[in-house]
Protein backbone atom coordinates (compact mmCIF):
# COMPACT_ATOMS: atom_id res chain seq x y z
CA UNK A 1 0.00 0.00 0.00
CA UNK A 2 1.51 3.39 -0.95
CA UNK A 3 2.34 5.72 1.91
CA UNK A 4 2.20 8.93 -0.12
CA UNK A 5 -1.24 10.35 -0.79
CA UNK A 6 -2.12 11.38 -4.31
CA UNK A 7 -5.40 13.14 -3.59
CA UNK A 8 -5.72 16.74 -2.47
CA UNK A 9 -7.14 16.99 1.05
CA UNK A 10 -8.97 19.88 2.66
CA UNK A 11 -7.48 21.12 5.96
CA UNK A 12 -10.08 21.28 8.75
CA UNK A 13 -8.47 21.48 12.18
CA UNK A 14 -10.88 21.67 15.14
CA UNK A 15 -14.09 22.07 13.14
CA UNK A 16 -15.45 18.58 12.60
CA UNK A 17 -15.49 16.40 15.69
CA UNK A 18 -15.44 12.62 15.18
CA UNK A 19 -17.20 10.24 17.57
CA UNK A 20 -17.04 6.49 18.07
CA UNK A 21 -20.36 5.37 16.58
CA UNK A 22 -20.76 2.49 19.07
CA UNK A 23 -19.94 4.32 22.32
CA UNK A 24 -20.72 7.92 21.20
CA UNK A 25 -17.46 9.03 22.86
CA UNK A 26 -15.37 11.69 21.08
CA UNK A 27 -12.36 10.35 19.18
CA UNK A 28 -10.87 13.63 17.98
CA UNK A 29 -11.10 16.17 15.18
CA UNK A 30 -10.69 15.83 11.44
CA UNK A 31 -7.39 17.43 10.40
CA UNK A 32 -7.94 16.89 6.69
CA UNK A 33 -10.25 14.87 4.51
CA UNK A 34 -10.60 13.42 1.02
CA UNK A 35 -12.96 10.96 -0.66
CA UNK A 36 -10.61 8.11 0.28
CA UNK A 37 -9.45 9.02 3.75
CA UNK A 38 -8.97 11.43 6.58
CA UNK A 39 -6.49 12.46 9.22
CA UNK A 40 -7.75 12.46 12.78
CA UNK A 41 -6.17 14.60 15.50
CA UNK A 42 -6.71 12.96 18.89
CA UNK A 43 -5.48 13.04 22.47
CA UNK A 44 -4.68 9.31 22.47
CA UNK A 45 -2.77 7.14 19.98
CA UNK A 46 -4.98 4.82 17.90
CA UNK A 47 -4.34 1.20 16.96
CA UNK A 48 -2.86 0.88 13.47
CA UNK A 49 -4.66 -1.75 11.39
CA UNK A 50 -7.87 -1.55 13.42
CA UNK A 51 -11.22 -0.73 11.83
CA UNK A 52 -13.21 1.98 13.58
CA UNK A 53 -16.93 2.75 13.37
CA UNK A 54 -17.11 6.55 13.27
CA UNK A 55 -19.74 9.27 13.33
CA UNK A 56 -19.65 12.93 12.36
CA UNK A 57 -22.23 15.18 13.98
CA UNK A 58 -23.02 17.97 11.54
CA UNK A 59 -24.82 20.97 13.02
CA UNK A 60 -27.83 22.19 11.07
CA UNK A 61 -30.38 24.97 11.28
CA UNK A 62 -33.21 22.68 12.39
CA UNK A 63 -31.47 19.57 13.69
CA UNK A 64 -28.13 17.83 13.97
CA UNK A 65 -27.26 15.42 11.13
CA UNK A 66 -25.16 12.27 11.52
CA UNK A 67 -22.77 10.82 8.97
CA UNK A 68 -21.78 7.28 9.92
CA UNK A 69 -18.83 5.55 8.28
CA UNK A 70 -16.14 2.94 8.80
CA UNK A 71 -12.41 3.56 8.46
CA UNK A 72 -9.21 1.61 8.99
CA UNK A 73 -6.26 3.24 10.76
CA UNK A 74 -3.23 3.19 8.42
CA UNK A 75 -0.72 5.03 10.60
CA UNK A 76 -0.44 6.93 13.88
CA UNK A 77 2.27 9.30 15.11
CA UNK A 78 2.73 11.90 17.79
CA UNK A 79 1.86 15.40 16.66
CA UNK A 80 4.22 18.35 17.08
CA UNK A 81 1.72 19.62 19.66
CA UNK A 82 2.42 17.85 22.97
CA UNK A 83 -0.38 15.49 23.98
CA UNK A 84 -1.81 15.19 20.45
CA UNK A 85 -1.62 12.36 17.94
CA UNK A 86 -2.24 12.30 14.20
CA UNK A 87 -3.73 9.16 12.64
CA UNK A 88 -4.38 8.45 8.96
CA UNK A 89 -7.50 6.52 8.00
CA UNK A 90 -8.64 4.80 4.82
CA UNK A 91 -12.41 4.88 4.40
CA UNK A 92 -14.31 1.64 3.91
CA UNK A 93 -17.06 2.23 1.32
CA UNK A 94 -17.82 5.86 2.22
CA UNK A 95 -21.56 6.59 2.28
CA UNK A 96 -23.12 9.12 -0.10
CA UNK A 97 -23.48 11.65 2.75
CA UNK A 98 -19.71 11.57 3.32
CA UNK A 99 -19.02 12.09 -0.40
CA UNK A 100 -21.46 15.03 -0.45
CA UNK A 101 -19.78 16.56 2.62
CA UNK A 102 -16.31 16.31 1.04
CA UNK A 103 -17.60 17.90 -2.18
CA UNK A 104 -19.27 20.71 -0.22
CA UNK A 105 -16.09 21.34 1.80
CA UNK A 106 -13.99 21.35 -1.37
CA UNK A 107 -16.25 24.00 -2.92
CA UNK A 108 -16.41 26.05 0.28
CA UNK A 109 -12.63 26.12 0.77
CA UNK A 110 -11.61 26.45 -2.88
CA UNK A 111 -10.42 29.63 -4.47
CA UNK A 112 -10.92 30.15 -8.17
CA UNK A 113 -9.00 32.75 -10.16
CA UNK A 114 -11.07 35.69 -11.31
CA UNK A 115 -11.40 36.29 -15.02
CA UNK A 116 -9.20 39.13 -16.22
CA UNK A 117 -11.15 42.18 -17.27
CA UNK A 118 -10.27 44.07 -20.40
CATH architecture: Beta Barrel
Strands side by side in the biggest sheet: 2-3-4-7-6-5
CATH class membership: Mainly Beta
Sketch the topology as an H/E string, one letter per element. EEEEEEEH
Give the distance, in angstroms, between the N- and C-terminal Cα atoms: 50 Å
Calculate Rg over CA atoms. 15 Å
Taking the sheet with the most strands, its summary is: 6 strands, antiparallel, barrel
The CATH fourth-level homologous superfamily: predicted glycosyltransferase like domains
Overall mean pLDDT score?
82
List keywords for this structure.
12% helix; PilZ domain-containing protein; 1 helix; 42% strand; 6-stranded antiparallel beta barrel; cyclic-di-GMP binding; mainly beta; Thrombin, subunit H; 118 residues; 7 strands
Describe what you observe in this structure.
It is a single chain. With 118 residues, the chain is mainly beta. It has one domain (10-98): Thrombin, subunit H, CATH 2.40.10.220. 12% of the residues lie in helices and 42% in strands. The protein is built from 1 helix and 7 strands; from the N terminus they run βββββββα. It has one helix spanning 96-109; strands at residues 10-11, 17-20, 26-33, 37-42, 51-58, 65-78, 85-92. A 6-stranded antiparallel β-barrel has the order 2-3-4-7-6-5. It is globular. Mean pLDDT is 82; it is low at 9-14.
Q: Care to give the gist of this entry?
A:
The chain is built from 1 helix and 7 strands.
Amino acid sequence: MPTQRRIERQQLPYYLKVFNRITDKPMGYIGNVSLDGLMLISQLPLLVGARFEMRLKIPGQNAQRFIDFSATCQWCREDVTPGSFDSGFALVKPPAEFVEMVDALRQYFSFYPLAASA
